[in-house]
Amino acid sequence: MFDVSSFSARLRPALVGAATALLGLAAGCTYSHGDPAPACDTSTENITYAGVISPIFEANCRRCHGTAVYATLGGGNDFGSYATISSYPQAGLMGSIKHTVGYDPMPKDAPRISDCDIARLEAWYAKGKPQ
Asked: Which pTM value belongs to this model?
């Protein structure tokens, strides 16, 4: 006759070992367990409006400040194109994006954008707002 308790007692350590190994592998993954993102090195990035800045605005701003909705949702602030974004003074735009006291924090009802994206925006301004 088959002894279940004996089989179970021999199988349990193997299952525990396998589960421990799998958890060890999963813990090695980045980002999914709170590991920090790689360093943001804007000095080596080719920061252009089309390649870097527009995607930041698309992800964070245009649901309210896009060309089709800015008049009703975005307080009249249009961030739908290079021409409209680059016409805003850096101090005002960055004051809102950085949540600086005295500025309307943006994006509204959402967390502040990442420090790396803020650094990219500042680098873009510093480089003369390349398209």
From this structure: 0.70
Closest CA to 120 of 58, 47, 59: 47
Domain regions of the chain by residue span? 49-126
Nearest in space to 98 (alpha carbons), one of 73, 118, 121: 118
User: Residue 124: which H helix or E strand, with range?
Assistant: helix 115-126
| One pLDDT digit (tens) per residue for the chain, 131 residues | 555 555 556 655 655 555 454 444 444 444 445 666 668 999 999 999 999 999 999 999 999 999 999 999 999 999 999 999 999 999 999 999 999 999 999 999 899 999 999 999 999 999 999 99
Q: How far apart are CA 106 and CA 13, in angstroms?
A: 53
